Amino acid sequence: MAVLDDAGGLTAGAQTTPARGALRPSFGVKLFYSVGQFVESGYLAINAFIFFYYTAVLGLSGSLVGAALAISMTLDAALDPLIGSISDGVRSRLGRRLPMMLLAAPLTMIAMGLLFAPPAGISPFLLFGWLALTKMGVRAFASMYNIPYFALGGEMSDDYVERSRIVAYRLLSGILVSVLITALAYSLFFAGEGGLQRPESYPPFGWAIATLVLAGGLLCCVGVWRYAASLPQPQTPAEPMMRRFLPEVLEIVRNRTFLTLFLSMLLFASAAGVNQALNNHAYVFVWKLRPETIQVITYVFLAGILIGVPLTPALLQVLEKKTVVSIGFATVLTAWVVLPGARGLGLFAPTGAAALPWLCAMALVVGLGSGLIFIAYPSMMADAADEHEHLHGSRREGLFFSGLGFAGKAAGGMGLLVGGLALDFLHFPREVGRQAHAVVAPEVLSHLVLAWGWLPAGLVGIGALVFAPYAIDRQRQAEVAAGLKVQRAADVSAGRSS
Description:
This protein has 498 residues and is mainly α. The protein contains 17 helices and 2 strands.
């Protein structure tokens, strides 16, 4: 049977591989694949802690923290498509994706641990440099893992609904590890008086989460390598990277479907990042919650996403992916407008235990809407890669998912950048970070809670408008799949006749 060559066409006479359209991974393969989500979920879970640690605890200005994160984002913007292109061209006995994943997992662990362990007593300038360098390391190495990991998920099946099921497995694993990280943070490392404001608690927390990330990343590789090795991969020698990289990037940038998905996810992920960056500031100083209580909100948020795991594939049986995502956008936007607006405008101001039910209700709604989006988007990106191959004869999952990966990490980059600038713009006092029961001016708190809710809500609204032109529905995906089978069959016949 034929396999894909480096240009996305078919090479006759190659070793037998599963036919596209018949690819359906077993439960065990999907289960092992899902634990690779530990890398991304671990990376995302620590972002809010990083922001609070460097601003409120270590006293670095929000603008400097934001600048360090902007530097790491610039590196990401350059590296992600390069990593995707390299991943697309890999040839190995382990398949196209696993070699980079095996290299990246331990490097991500080291960088993540160092991020939470800056040398004691260094100057603000050196602290800024430490943050910038270690954050760049985490982002770069996480990209080396996540981009081929996401691309592998898109290659595991080409069925319209099965792709969403694979994402659902991955998202469920992400929820479970996020619960574990949250429990470790608030019930072990930051429990008790002072909680998040104790600087000595952060280095052991960082190394513990980094070890967890390494374990999940390696376990995924071990569990899926046989299936990954059986998937179609390039058989012909690749062109030199510098010759093919720029044309490949320009090729996908001209794809309107890719741009629609990339830009809308970039906006949504940035919105989530702004909200997450300011979460601990809002919970500690506005709503006056104890660390042990904050974790309850996180669990409820994850429960909302968990509801979306079985709900999204069920909805996709009767609704288009575009409709499901639009529902998710509307749900999240509404939640971020209502409660923060009521508190910021002085209409509703509970604190402590009285605020908890309302914050949990908001988190549940945001989690549910986010679950719909996070499951449907990777599935749509895989559909877009199919359409791209149908139109252009080249398959670029690595580059497509590098765009999705970069957009997702904007939650940790652009969101923290905007959050840091917002803190300085609001003149939030840096000296209260290590003070338990610190008092902040009421007007500062009102502005803070609006930045926490309304600013990300505005970004979600813009993202929904950008997403509106997306046009791959069930019928279009079926047409693309049928066309690809015809194209590949013709390539096989041509190869045999020659």
